[in-house]
Every structure is written in structure tokens, then in C-alpha cells.
Write a structure and sequence with these properties.
Helix content: 55-70%
Number of helices: 14
Distance between the termini: 33 Å
Shape: globular
Structural class: alpha+beta
Order of helices and strands: HHHEHEEEHHHHHHHHHH
Number of domains: 1
Number of strands: 4
Radius of gyration: 18 Å
Strand content: 5-15%
Strand order of the largest sheet: 1-2-4-3
């Protein structure tokens, strides 16, 4: 079946919900794992319990230590987020800006019904509007695709894994990290649908990985991407198994492939494109760890 992204967004705004909202563009590696997780009631119960604890603790901290974004509070950020939400057909989440100048980062927390996006202030300082659309669109992708409770669970279980309960929760942490790497690919696609320029997505990735506008301007992009091919040849590549995000060169290659898909090209008004199933096969080879 041919997918019409524009019509899909209109149906979402009217209240229509399919198998999962983002299924039409999501990476199959993400879809398959989440569908499996949702068939196991004990996993769902455990995740829900962790999320309730995490939500209550984190919400109070944000109100006391961050700035809540709105139409009259950081309107640049608010308007960009509103554009991303309109593109994906989701409700506007609450957004906070945290005064962090050491790390360029953004994250999504809360629950699927009450989601919160947190953005570090240094990222806003150094990213263009289009680059922010990619980053905020990525975070909106987590909400759109029902990722939030699993992200919160992974965060809290990772903390527990570093404490006395590490031996008990480690299998769950490893499983959720594997899913999270696939989920990030899905949300990079959401970010691209929002910014509509694969070059902007690449620029955002490179700024995130360098953490410095000056270093970014001096970066040899092709040489950096060669690191992915070099890294695949060593035993050290297994270290990625403990990461919640794929390595950045992989994410850049994966988002470039999605830009060639029929789903993306139709969404931005271009003809043709590679069927998404074929794109997913290529992406699966790129992001696999071993």
C-alpha cells in the first residue's frame, strides 16, 4: 500500500490511531522489538512501575531547576517545537530548557500521555533553527512512536544496574539498550521529516559529536565517516552493545538512506524513491553491532 504522509497527519489530527502512530516510517528493528515487548505482561508491568517512580521524581526537579517553554517564554524554541508537532500530527508536549553549557543534548521523559522534552541551553545557543527542527523533531519522534515509557525505564534500570541490584536488572538493561539503538534510528527519521533536509541532519549530528562550533567548522566530514568503516574491523566494536545510541557515523548513513526512501520523498513532495522495506534491510546491516 502506498503511504500518503500528508493524509496520515490529517487523520492523526482528527483522532485516528493505527497499529502504532509512527509505524509508517519507523525502522523495522524498532517495531519488531516493541511489538514483542508489548506481548509480555510482566515486562509491561515492570516498565509501568519504574515509570511512575521516575516521573514523580523528575517532574518536581524540573519545576525547580529548569525554565518551562511557552508562547511567551523562549518563543523561538516553542514555535520550532510546534512546527515539529504539526508535521508529525501529535499534541504539543511540555518543553523545558536546562542551563547546561558542558554537553549539547536533548531528551524525552515522562509517559506516553504526559511527555516532557528537556533541551540543554548550549544546544539552543549553537544550533540553527533548521538544526533545532531536526533535534526537536527527533524527540517528538519518541513521543509519536510510543517510546517514552521504555526510555524512562531504561534510564532508571541503568541506574539500578550500577547499584547493588546490577546482577538482577542487567539482562533487562541489555535488552532495552538493543531496542533503544533501533528506536534512535526511527526518531532520526522523524527529525528528518521535520527539518526536510538531510544536510541539516548531518550538520546537527556533527555538532553534537564535536560539542564545539569551532571544532565543527574544522571537521573533515569524509574522514570522520571513514571511522565507521575502520571501527567495524576491530574487536572494540562490541563496546557498542552497552550503548543506548548507535555510533554517530552509523546514524548519518542511516538517515541518508531514509532520505532516499519512497516514504520520505513523498512526504517532501518528491517522486520515486526506494521502498522502505529495502531501506530497512540496508540500515539493519549498517547499525548491527556484531
Amino acid at each position: 500500500m502506498e503511504f500518503d504522509f500528508g493524509s496520515y497527519v490529517e487523520r492523526r489530527k482528527a483522532g485516528w490511531v493505527g497499529d502504532r502512530p509512527g509505524d509508517q516510517y519507523a525502522f523495522s528493528g524498532d517495531l519488531n522489538v516493541l511489538r514483542t515487548l508489548r506481548t509480555f505482561r510482566p515486562v509491561e508491568l515492570a516498565v509501568s512501575s519504574v515509570v511512575r517512580l521516575g516521573k514523580n521524581v523528575y517532574a518536581g526537579d524540573l519545576l525547580g531547576s529548569a525554565v518551562k517553554v511557552g508562547t511567551n517564554q523562549y518563543p523561538r524554541v516553542y514555535n520550532i517545537a510546534k512546527q515539529c508537532c504539526d508535521t508529525l500530527g501529535i499534541s504539543m508536549p511540555q518543553i523545558y530548557v536546562v542551563g547546561r553549557f558542558d554537553v549539547m543534548n536533548a531528551m524525552t521523559t515522562g509517559t506516553d500521555k504526559e511527555s516532557v522534552i528537556v533541551i540543554h541551553s548550549v544546544l539552543i545557543d549553537h544550533f540553527s533553527d533548521d538544526e533545532l527542527r531536526f533535534v526537536i523533531g527527533h524527540e517528538c519522534g519518541h513521543i509519536h512512536n510510543g517510546h517514552v515509557v521504555y526510555l524512562v525505564a531504561l534510564n532508571w534500570l541503568t541506574r539500578l544496574a550500577g547499584a547493588l541490584l546490577g546482577w538482577f536488572v542487567q539482562p533487562a538493561v541489555i535488552a532495552l539498550q538493543s531496542w533503544s539503538r533501533a528506536a534512535e534510528i526511527t526518531c532520526d527519521r522523524a527529525g528528518l521529516l521535520c527539518c526536510k533536509d538531510v544536510r541539516v541532519a548531518q550538520q546537527a549530528f556533527l555538532k553534537l559529536v564535536t560539542g564545539s562550533p569551532k571544532l565543527y567548522s574544522e571537521l573533515n566530514v569524509e574522514q570522520f565517516l571513514d571511522q565507521m568503516r575502520e571501527g567495524r574491523e576491530g574487536i572494540g566494536r562490541a563496546a557498542e552493545l552497552t550503548k543506548s545510541h548507535p555510533y554517530v557515523p552509523k546514524r548519518i548513513e542511516a538517515v541518508k538512506l531514509f532520505a532516499e526512501s519512497d516514504v520520505y520523498r513523498k512526504a517532501v513532495g518528491l517522486p520515486g524513491g526506494i521502498p522502505l522495506a529495502e531501506v530497512d534491510k540496508k540500515v539493519a546491516e549498517i547499525v548491527k553491532v556484531v
